[in-house]
């Protein structure tokens, strides 16, 4: 491609295809951001906008920080730091300071002295009633790639949404769709996120990372965005490939237990106390709900009926 052809291409919208959302047309500025090393990091992690292994790692590092007397780490804050780092390392990507701050507020869902409409902060990280595009994306994406399908139609929910009194509200006839969405969430937790084997693997993974941390400084990488850029799921290969390093032997054995499934397991995965635990066995426990613990998750969602009347 010649320089003029490349320049012409960057001056026009480009079409990308996504397995969940289909074809999307993005403007040149978005394409410039996508083409940075910091954004392309997402190719090498299974969960978008996170550290490796998503919320599992978040639990590991916060346990580590609590023991060390440090502050709690949240992936939303890391996303904001990475955003700042992205623009610092790529000065050719021109975005106004107030727009960067706005994006960061959208990520955290906590606007700082913003004069913009409140409903804008309910789109990505909705602190009001926990319905947002982030939730729709991961529920639809995980259901698809796990091969279990989904019963809710997020596109219909979007089309049936409306801003009333500065908040995003939904037509009353979408209530069944929301019920299906929360059931999909429950099913994913039951069959995948909190399956007994997954919980066991998570426990072994945590032990492996903690063991390797002293040598590889794993938990420090989240505080340095240059290191965090290359901190991806490949950390497992980094541990395993250093077979001559005695400092990583324990971590390597834990990972090999996961790969070879050479472990013991006893107990059930629910909210009851497990009885009869034997030495050497690992017992995993989990609780399941529909997203609001013991409360009905539909209660806080603002619904309206024809004529823009609240229910």
Q: Beta fraction of the residues?
A: 5-15%
User: Helical proportion?
Assistant: 40-55%
What is the terminal separation in angstroms?
A: 57 Å
Shape: globular
Spatially, the strands of the biggest sheet line up as 3-4-5-6
Structural class: alpha+beta
Tally of helical segments = 13
The average pLDDT value, as a whole number, equals 88
User: Biggest β-sheet, characterized?
Assistant: 4 strands, mixed
Pick out the low-confidence regions. Answer: 267-277
Taken in chain order, the helices and strands follow as: HEEHHHHHHHEEHHHHHEE
Number of strands: 6
Q: Whole-number radius of gyration?
A: 22 Å
Oligomer: single chain
Structural features, described:
This protein has about 300 residues and is of the alpha+beta class. The chain is about 45% helix and about 10% strand. The chain contains 13 helices and six strands. The chain has helices at about 5-10, 30-35, 35-40, 55-70, 75-90, 95-110, 135-145, 155-160, 175-195, 195-215, 225-230, 235-240, 250-260; strands at about 15-20, 20-25, 160-165, 165-170, 305, 310. The strands form two sheets. The chain has a four-stranded mixed sheet. Strand 1 and strand 2 form a beta hairpin. Helix 4 packs across helix 10 (about 195-215), helix 5 runs antiparallel to helix 6 and helix 10 runs antiparallel to helix 13. The longest helix is centred in the middle third of the chain and has 21 residues, at about 195-215. The relative contact order is 0.10. InterPro entries: dGTPase-like (IPR050135). One of its GO terms (molecular function) is dGTPase activity. This is Deoxynucleoside triphosphate triphosphohydrolase SAMHD1-like. One of its GO terms (cellular component) is nucleus.
């Amino acid at each position: 491609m010649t320089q003029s052809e490349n320049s012409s291409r960057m001056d026009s919208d480009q079409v990308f295809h996504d397995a969940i959302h289909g074809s999307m047309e993005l403007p040149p500025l978005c394409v410039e951001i996508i083409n940075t090393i910091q954004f392309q990091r997402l190719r090498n992690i299974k969960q978008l906008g996170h550290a490796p292994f998503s919320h599992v790692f978040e639990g590991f590092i916060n346990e580590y920080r609590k023991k060390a007397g440090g502050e709690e780490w949240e992936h939303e804050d890391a996303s904001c730091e990475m955003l700042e780092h992205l623009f610092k390392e790529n000065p050719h990507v021109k975005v106004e300071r107030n727009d960067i701050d706005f994006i960061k507020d959208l990520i955290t869902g906590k606007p700082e002295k913003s004069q913009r409409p409140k409903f804008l902060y309910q789109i990505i990280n909705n602190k009001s009633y926990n319905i947002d595009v982030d939730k729709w994306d991961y529920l639809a994406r995980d259901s698809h790639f796990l091969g279990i399908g989904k019963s809710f139609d997020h596109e219909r929910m979007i089309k049936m949404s409306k801003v009333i009194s500065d908040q995003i509200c939904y037509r009353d006839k979408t209530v069944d769709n929301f019920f299906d969405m929360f059931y999909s969430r429950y099913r994913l937790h039951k069959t995948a996120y909190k399956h007994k084997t997954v919980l066991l693997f998570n426990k072994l993974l945590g032990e492996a990372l903690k063991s390797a941390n002293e040598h590889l400084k794993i938990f420090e990488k989240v505080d340095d965005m240059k290191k965090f850029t290359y901190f991806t799921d490949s950390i497992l290969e980094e541990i395993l490939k250093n077979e001559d390093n005695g400092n990583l032997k324990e971590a390597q054995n834990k990972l090999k237990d996961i790969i070879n499934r050479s472990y013991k397991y006893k107990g059930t995965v629910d909210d009851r106390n497990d009885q009869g635990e034997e030495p050497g066995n690992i017992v995993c426990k989990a609780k399941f709900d529909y997203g609001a613990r013991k409360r009905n998750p539909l209660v806080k969602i603002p619904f309206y009926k024809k004529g823009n009347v609240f229910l």
